[in-house]
Structures are given as structure tokens and as C-alpha cells.
Amino acid sequence: MKTIILRTASNYLLPVLLLFSIFILLRGHYLPGGGFVGGLIAAIAFVLHSFANGLKNTKSLLRFHPGFLMPAGLALSFFSGLSPIIFAGDPFMTGLWYHGHVPVLGSVGSALFFDMGVYLVVVGVTLTIIFTISEAP
Amino acid sequence: MMQQLIIYPLLFQLFLSIVLMFFWNKINAQKVISITGSIIAVLLSSYVFYYVWENGTQKVNAGSWDAPFGIVFVADTLAVTLVLLTALSGLAVSIFSAGSVIKDRLRFGYFPIFHFLLLGLTGAFLTGDLFNLYVWFEIIIISSFVLITIGGEKAQLEGAVKYFTLNILASTIFLTAIAVLYGLTGSLNMADLAGKVAAVENRGLVEVAAILFLIGFGTKASIFPLYFWLPASYHTPPAAVSAIFGGLLTKVGVYALIRVFTLIFVGDVFLGEILMVLAILTIFSGGVGALVQNNVRKVFSYLIICHIGYMIAGLGMFTEIAISGVIFYLIHDIMVKTNLFMVSGIIFKIKSSNSMRALGGFYANYPNLSLLIFIPLFSLVGIPPLSGFWPKISLIGEGFATENYWTVAAIVFASFITLVIIAKLWAEVFWKDAKEIPEKPKFEYFSDISKAKKTQFILPIVFLSLISLYIGFGAEHIQLLSSRIANELMNSEQYIDTVLNNS
């Protein structure tokens, strides 16, 4: 599938799709969206890039094995769940919110970090699965 | 921070698996982390057990959402006892895995998945919410599916397909039952359901939901006629995996049955009779199945089914003493079954065979080891004063008191047939003269491995045998514990009050 059109387009689509995935991630708190869908879109961005430029190029673009994102994302989610116990003495998973306006994001709370963890796990799992399958002879 | 004490064992297992995932390729580091972590988990669970024993039932509203609406974690004495037992078998199997599971399996994330399984078990015991219970069951199934297939041998995959198909079907039925119950009452909190189900006028539909729960949990607990997945799959994965499966996976089904039928569907005579009939059939089919098997691990698999029957029978009788017998048996069974599958692993390691006909001469070659293995084997039979004896007194006595003579007959039959099977196993594997088994060229025999690895094989068996001995000789303590649990289960008002009180 190494047509010049796809190859050229994928170079532009990769950052656009990644930005869109982050938009979906941030939109998720009150509207449809969130970490899971955002993660899938981000994974699609890399998959499309690997279709056009070959797996090797995508891997060198990523620099590290996508499997690493799984424990990293899990750890982020875990500590966002743990943060109310540590900082406020509230039960596990209680939402902690920063009461002030943050530009672009709106309001920031522990739920956002939980969703970011989900995002990373989804990207990690999807890319690991797809890379493993396409690597197989 | 102390108010959330009861969910720390759960969070700790999650933390452990995340840490282990960071060390994906470093197997030796994983071994160290897993064993150290399991020791900490035992200490933590013991402290939680002590805390709940002293201060009564505790609860945590996850996310600070109040009880009937949010998810609650409840630690009554039954839950913390099982959490402690999970941690104990987790520690034993973790050490055993470090010695026995080969590198090709460890490389694919054996230890992280193992701790995810323990996380699922701990969560299932602690949760006070039916849908959350379903989620923990899913975590258990998914991680057990990975554990059973890891390594990818042909026999393993065949067993795994049977295991997965029936278990996923059971989960679907369980989910349907939750849906029916939610449609009837609009609640998923178990304590809240207890009151609401009793007030539902459409008793027929409540009965349907109860039967759906029975089928869903019954498949997981491997009761008659839904047990076929168990003997088809438990002998295929490495012994360490079978050990944790045999010790805990069916027991979590029994736990769910106990919880649901003592809290939500209470005092249903029809259901009690069904449970009793199923128990008798489970005992017979498991016992007879074990009698004709030749593979040591298949024998143990059928014995799991046979002994699940005891617990279901006690639940069917539904008196305080019978329930205390069930709990005592549950405690004894988790320790012994975990131990026995590790024993089957060590037998395989020594002779590279699990066939009773081919094995022999263990007592002549390994007298000390044989005496060690004697403890779990004959604890299972329940020769007094070993641990299997005591709960049967409660069960048989209560069978006479409630005039369930068939159940008494089945229990006596099961004890007898277990004795026959274990005596046969002892005679074939340990006393019979050794036979020549052709040596496998690539197999690493027990006599070839290093001393450290030998310790990792023997130590967990010693550890669990000591606990079994304690259960037998310290039966008074365990009886005190199970009576208290039975009392709590039969008088569920305290549980309900603790959960629904949000002040």
C-alpha cells in the first residue's frame, strides 16, 4: 500500500489525528468521548502511518515499545485513584478537583488523570496487538 | 487513611501487578518482587483480618458515593477470612511458580497476570455490589484464561477452549440474573437488595433470578451437571497454575453462592431442596469420576467437584451449624487443594509422569518428602485429627438434626470414597515398587536442579501443610471463627445496617 498519495497524506494525518484524539480525550468529561475512544483514535493514527511507511519507520518514530504504555497508563490511573486517600483522606476514587479555571481544559481533577491513564493503556494495548500481528511472518 | 484499611489488600495486588509489568523482561526481578509482595500481602491481609475481628464489619464507599447508589466494599468476617486465605495460597503459589514454571512461560508476563488473578479474587470477596462482583469475576476469568493458555501447548489450548466457553456462558447467565434483579428492584447493592427482594410481589420472577444465579455461580463452582469444564482443563496448565485454580477459582463460586443465598434469597424452601439434590449428585459424580481416573491431577480435579458437594449440601440445609461447617470446610479445602496440585507438580518434576500406573517407589526413594505429602493427602480424607475431619461433624450432625438422611449418606459416601481414592493413590504412587519410566531427553528432572530451586518446590508445600496441621490441631480456633461467620451470615441485619448507614 505504498502509494505516494497515502504516504504524503499520512504524514499530515498523523499529527491531525493525534490532536483529534486529545480533543476527544478532553471532551470526554461531560460529552461523548473520553480516554478509551481517544486512545483508539491515537492508535489508528500510528496504524495508518505504518500502512503507508512500513512498520519499521513507525517504530522508529515511536522510539519505545508501545507495550511500555500499558503499565505507565495503569500506574497513572492507579495513582489518580489513590490520590484522594493520600491527599484528602477520602475513599479510593473520590474525585479531587482544582477549583480554578484552567484555560482550554476548563476544570482539572483526578478524573482527568484517570482518563489519561486509560488513553495510554488503550494506545499501548492496541499498538502492541497490531504490531505483533503485522510482524508475524 | 485507616478508614480505608479494608481495600488495601486489593489495591496492593493491583500495585504489585503494575510494578511487575514494568519489569516485563526481567524474570528474576519479577520473582523477587512477586514473592516479597506476596509476603507483604499476607501481613496486610492478616492485619485487616485482625482489625475486622476486633471491630466488626467495615465498609468503604468507593468514590465517596453513598451506599445504595455507589459501589461499596464490605469486609465482614467471611470476606476478610477469604482474603487472608487468598493471600496465603498466593504466597505459596508465588514461591512455587518461581521454582517450577519454565522461562518460556515467565517471559510472557506470568507473574503480572498471576497477581491480576489474585486482585480479581480479593475484589470478589470484598465487594458489596452485585454488578461489581460481576466485574471481578470477569477479571478472574480473563487472567485465568491467560494463565491457562500461557505456553501454548496443544493440550493446554484444548483445555482452555472448554474452560473459557463454559465460564463465559456462566458469566452471561450471571449477568442476565443481575439484569432481572435490577429490573425488579432497581438496585444492585447486595445489602439494599436484601430488603427490596423480600418486598417484591412477583415471587415467580424472584425465583427465576435465584435459579439464574444458581446456574451462573454453580458453573463456576463446578456443581452437577455443570462441572465438565473442570476435569477437562485443570490438568493441562503448569502445576502452579492448577494449584491456584484448584484452590481458589471454584471456591469463589461457592463464596458467591453463600453470599447470595444467605443475604438476598433467604429462606426459600424450594431452593434449599434443589441445592440439596444437586449437592448429592455433585458428590456422587465427582467421587465416581475420581475413582476411575489414572492421571494424578485428574483425580484431584474430580475430588474438587466431589468436595464442592459438601459445601453446597451445607448451604442447602441452611442452619447456623451447617453453615459453620461449610465455612470450616471452605477454609480447609482452599489450603489442601492448593497444596495437592503443587504435590502433583513435584511428582511430575521427579518422574516426568502423572500416571498412577507408571509411578511408584516414592516412599523408598524420598521418605521425608513422602511423609510431608502424607499431610495434605490425609487431611483431605479427614482422618482425625487432621483438618478435613472437623467440618464433617457439623455437617453430618446437622444432616441428622434436619432429617436429611440422603445428604448424610452422600457425605459419608464421599468421605469413604475419598479414603479409597487416596489410599489407592498412596499405594500406587508411594508404596508400589518403582517402575522404569523412559527418561525424557529435554526434561529437567528434580534431581538435576539446584538446591535453591528445590527449596522453592518444597517450601510452599511445607508452608501449606503447616497451615493444614494448624487447622486440624487448632480446630477450636477455626470452629470459633466459622461459628462467628455463620452467625453473621444467618443474622444479616448487622451487615445490612453497616452498609446502608452512611453517617
From TrEMBL, chain A:
- Every copy of the Na+/H+ antiporter MnhB subunit-related protein domain together lies at 5-128
Q: Cellular component GO terms, alphabetically?
A: plasma membrane
Question: Where does this protein reside within or beyond the cell?
Answer: Cell membrane
The record's section on Pfam families has: MnhB
Instruction: Answer whether the UniProt record assigns the keyword Transmembrane helix to this protein.
Output: yes
Q: Which UniProt keywords apply?
A: Cell membrane, Membrane, Transmembrane, Transmembrane helix
Per its UniProt record, what InterPro entries does this chain match?
CPA3_antiporter_subunitB, MnhB
* Topology with respect to the bilayer: Multi-pass membrane protein
Q: Which residues cross the membrane?
A: 12-30, 36-55, 67-88, 108-133
What does the similarity note say? Belongs to the CPA3 antiporters (TC 2.A.63) subunit B family.
Q: Which PANTHER family match?
A: NA(+)/H(+) ANTIPORTER SUBUNIT B (PTHR33932), NA(+)_H(+) ANTIPORTER SUBUNIT B (PTHR33932:SF4)
Q: What is this protein called?
A: Multisubunit sodium/proton antiporter, MrpB subunit
From TrEMBL, chain B:
Can you say where in the cell this protein is located? Answer: Cell membrane; Membrane
| GO molecular function terms listed in the Swiss-Prot or TrEMBL record | NADH dehydrogenase (ubiquinone) activity
Q: Where does the signal sequence lie?
A: none
Q: Per the record's keyword annotation, is Ribosomal protein included, yes or no?
A: no
Give the bilayer topology.
Multi-pass membrane protein
* GO terms under biological process: ATP synthesis coupled electron transport
Q: Which GO terms describe its cellular component?
A: plasma membrane
Database matches in Pfam families: Proton_antipo_M (PF00361)
Specify the protein name. Answer: Multisubunit sodium/proton antiporter, MrpD subunit
What the entry lists under InterPro entries is as follows:
CPA3_Na-H_Antiporter_D, NADH_UbQ_OxRdtase, ND/Mrp_TM
Q: Would you identify the family this protein belongs to, as annotated? A: Belongs to the CPA3 antiporters (TC 2.A.63) subunit D family.
